[in-house]
Amino acid sequence: MSQTNRLQGGQIDRSKVLNFTFDGKAFQGYQGDTLASALLANGVRLMGRSFKYHRPRGPISSGSEEPNAIVELRSGARQEPNTRATIAELFEGLSAKSQNHVGSLKFDFLAVNDRLASFFAAGFYYKTFMWPKAFWEKLYEPMIRRAAGLGSLSMQTDPDAYDKGFLHCDLLVIGAGPSGLAAALTAARSGARVILADEDFAPGGRLNAETFTLGNTSGAEWAQAAVAELSAMPNVRILTRTVVIGAFDHGIYGALERVSDHLPVPSEGKPRQILWRIYSSRAVLAAGATERPIAFRNNDRPGIMMAGALRAYVNRWAATPGKSVAVFTNNDDGLRTASDLIAKGVKVSAVIDSRADGPAFSGAEHLRGAVVTDALGRLGLHSVKVKLASGEIRQIPCEALGVSGGWNPNVHLTCHQRGLPVWNADLAAFVPGSLPPGMVVAGAANGEFSTAAALASGAKAAAGALDALGLSAAPADLPQAEDAPTRVSPLWYVPHKGRAWLDQQNDVTVKDVKLAHQEGFRSVEHLKRYTTMGMATDQGKTSNIGGLAVMAEMTGKSIPDTGTTIYRPPYTPVPIGAFAGRSAGADFRPKRLTPSHKWAAEQGAVFVEVGMWLRAQWLPRQGETHWRQSVDREVAATRGSVGICDVTTLGKIDVQGPDAAEFLNRIYCNPFAKLPVGKVRYGLMLREDGMAMDDGTTARLAEDHFVTTTTTANAVGVYRHMEFCRQCLWPDLDVQIISTTEAWAQFSVAGPNARKLLQKIVDPEYDISNEAFPYMGCGEITVCGGLRARLFRISFSGELAYEIAVPTRYGDGLVRAMMEAGREFDAVVYGTEALGVMRIEKGHAAGNELNGTTSALNLGMGGMVNKKKDSIGSTLSEREGMNAADALNLVGFEPVDRSKTLLGGMHFINRGAPADAKNDQGYMTSVAFSPSLGHSVGLGFLKNGAARKGEVIRAVNPLANEEVEVKVVSAHFVDPEGERLRG
Amino acid sequence: MAEHRLKPITPLGGDTSRKDTFQGVTITEVVDTALASLSARASQAAEFRAAAPKFFGFDLPAPARSASGGDYTAIWTGPEQWFIEAPFATHEDIARIVKQGFGDAASVTEQTDGWGRFDLEGPRVRKVFEILSNLDLEKLPSGGASRTVIEHLGCILVCREAGARYSVYGPRSSAASLHHALVTAAKAAL
């Protein structure tokens, strides 16, 4: 069987034969085909199984509104479920599979659901799977998911890339049918920047599907000529295969361009899809209209489709779904399908026109005042039952039926900002109501259905939009085109006791809507949730209006009073990958590399993510098999001789100006006004509510110049806070700030040999002896023969320590130079683990303690809040609740049994008391194995902890049922008097 | 500057600047520019205004603009704040040099190594930016400058020649990520 249903003509390239498979069977189609058109041409009508009842289904549309012909495309990692065969472009080698069946497409075992339909009415699972409760998660839900699937995932990583992009225009034209092309031509000829977007690969909209002429040419030819003219203009961007998915604030539209979906594999480096954000001054919505079905018994048989779609298959793709076709219509447009079919040589069995008084039709038997009551042919239509005007029932053989219930303007984007469509009784359809700012609607989307009206309204809409932008458009030169009136007599469903399908994607019938009404779910929003009508990939484009018409009939309200559900973006489904763009996997977010990263990587450092930074966590040496060996060695070497650590990640903020000292005095709770030039001071910053915000050191390089450091985690937050204070709280202060975090490579050099090492680096004219450069000194120096640098005598480890900074490009050179200079001292570079161990041994607070819930008093720094001046948080830190006698104090802990390890997050409970929240005494914030002491140590907050030193309590972990007896000690485990750092 | 013995590396970690060539666009890591921030001190606004043309030989640019003359280019970066570019070879200590020109009328901070600079040049360069930045480059004239987010990073984009040559300044520590994004975008767009 080869393309048995292919007709003459069409806009397909018969010189390019494309091989493809469907459910493993080989077929051929042509360039220009969609998967659906090629299958129809090959005599395949059955393309899928329905969601709930597993009923056999074929395509009902030729566009993105398709509810039935939902297939899995491709295989392996590129397998994509839930794609619409009606818009999937055929390419050589395409493999497609039908989905949602157990067994074959023709013999689906789960079709038993259809026999049990009376048990599966709307809301059945709310009622049926109530008990036993435990069965829901383990049994019912997996069972329902398996039965009611929408295709399957490959469970492999998507090998394709997606981009996100940004476009700008004066006028965005959404849709390249007659009205969109007229709008684009009008605007483009005026010189405006125009973007024309269309979801199809061939612009033209219905012009490609119809046989009308525009002037002397066919519609399709006119569209091609218009596109050719637009393509040649530098001010026009044509986006084909692009769906505008949403209308957002300020003229911003989202659009998904399917760049490579029509190719077997995207070209090297090219994305599969691009999610565009389009910034427009004005937009013309020319999105056309969607034909709606008429529901009748078994109206979901494969072979039954919208009359307009049938016409499109025949005219554009030269593919007919059957050798003999009937048409069922309530409006004039359906008659057009019959005449086009006849012109193509397809036998039209009958035209069933629900209108007794509609226009006459010749060329086929015209049954006026008749309706289709039933369709026969489970896997493919073979005949319909028609109730004639006389009441007589007649069976008419046909392999396909084109149904037209009228057309609904595609108002979706007009409603994305909560605009409501309004009912037009003449068209029996909703048309756009209030619009998003800057949008105008043209053509069929505005209910102007004739080609002449579409062209004129497109041109007029563009001219109006340009006028509002101060651009003038020349009068449009529009061709002569058909201008038939719209004559429709509303008919939503043919009453019958059988099941008539409203929403074929969700298997919702007229009966289900009636059941929803009976059970009280009468608002359209409730109707949607109760029956699932209008959900899933098609978002009810062909079904919603029918459902609410039935509901209107039940409630006795009019259709406009019943209203529509809210329209939300996206207009058509968007792969999650497109929303992610390139931010996936290792590129999920940018990384920040320290100045010594290259050197550390050469050493085989193990890196850890610290925010966006990658920091060396430890640097293993040969023979070390456990991280503790590396970390213990790094600590011991630093405390024993000298260690170097890249501390560039700490935030650095340059604070300058005549009021810089006063500014810092207000930012920090402790005083800075009198800090001498050449000195560094530790500062604690409070939030407005009195809680600790951040800490760090501030160096005064000149009377009007400070460099403040922050914690790594809060570098951005503190800078933002300081900018807020500067700009909003104290604009009268003459102070300027800027981040210099990245500009300087900064290293801590710590340990008893730190000075000796640095004396080999710092140029000899700078005296860094203890006398000349004491603890908390700072200065601008030169190193390594004249490079400008900064030196700070500060210590986080508790050792004799310095921090030395050079311009970042020299950081790599400096670490290499220091390691060379430190060779005689067995210098090491230590990572963040050793840094953490040493600060815990020293009792210095870090992020674990500055956790947003702790005050200066909690941290043991209550005395730092200077009351001789005002500073942020000072007053509110006096609140009674923050100064209770049993307030938490930061203290140290060591296990009574020295072999025990401690765990961060453990809670403290007194001996003998139950381990519950009522008896909670505080919590452990930081723990480490101290190589210096040979056992685990911890820092934590304990109620009235400062007065409880020596007491033995329990550290408990109720989650794992663990507990360790700990002794309360000073937080300063190593060198409590601070002699080393002053040495 | 004195001849010291430390060897610099580029933002991408190389010994020399990197250049990537695509059809119609080149992406170059620029390492020969010194950079400083210049902020006016409110208490000496008049002195600041007088010093600027005297020192640079041109008026400081208005918002969203840059201005050039002699060795210097000034880029507006915020209210009463500019970034000053000059050749690295002659102005490595740029902050000290500019500070001398303004004295107490300005706060000057070295920014050279706070940033990595990439120049994108070529007739198709705007296409690359379409998938990088939401700036409307057709409306950014030669000499235009703006903050923009590229690859989640706060960047400064300077239009050297409209439609043909642009500089992107991004945080130096993320230069590798930024470069990856630029190159990936060029491959995708060109």
TrEMBL record, chain A:
InterPro entries: 2Fe-2S-bd_N (IPR042204), BFD-like_2Fe2S-bd_dom_sf (IPR041854), FAD/NAD-bd_sf (IPR036188), GcvT/YgfZ/DmdA (IPR028896), GcvT/YgfZ_C (IPR029043), GcvT_C (IPR013977), GCVT_N (IPR006222), Sarcosine_oxidase_asu (IPR006277)
A Pfam family of this chain: Fer2_4
The EC number(s) this enzyme carries: 2.1.2.10
Start and end residues of each SoxA A3 domain: 497-581
UniProt keyword list: Methyltransferase, Oxidoreductase, Transferase
EC class: transferase
Record-level Gene Ontology MF annotations: aminomethyltransferase activity; methyltransferase activity; sarcosine oxidase activity
A GO BP entry: methylation
Record domain Aminomethyltransferase C-terminal: where: 890-975
Residue intervals of the GCVT N-terminal domain: 597-869
Entry-linked Gene3D superfamilies: 2Fe-2S iron-sulphur cluster binding domain, sarcosine oxidase, alpha subunit, N-terminal domain, BFD-like [2Fe-2S]-binding domain, FAD/NAD(P)-binding domain, Probable tRNA modification gtpase trme, domain 1
Family membership noted in the UniProt record: Belongs to the GcvT family.
PANTHER family linked to this entry: AMINOMETHYLTRANSFERASE, AMINOMETHYLTRANSFERASE, MITOCHONDRIAL
NCBIfam families associated with the record: soxA
Record-given protein name: Aminomethyltransferase
Record organism: Pseudogemmobacter humi
Automatic annotation (TrEMBL), chain B:
Protein name stated in the entry: Sarcosine oxidase, gamma subunit family
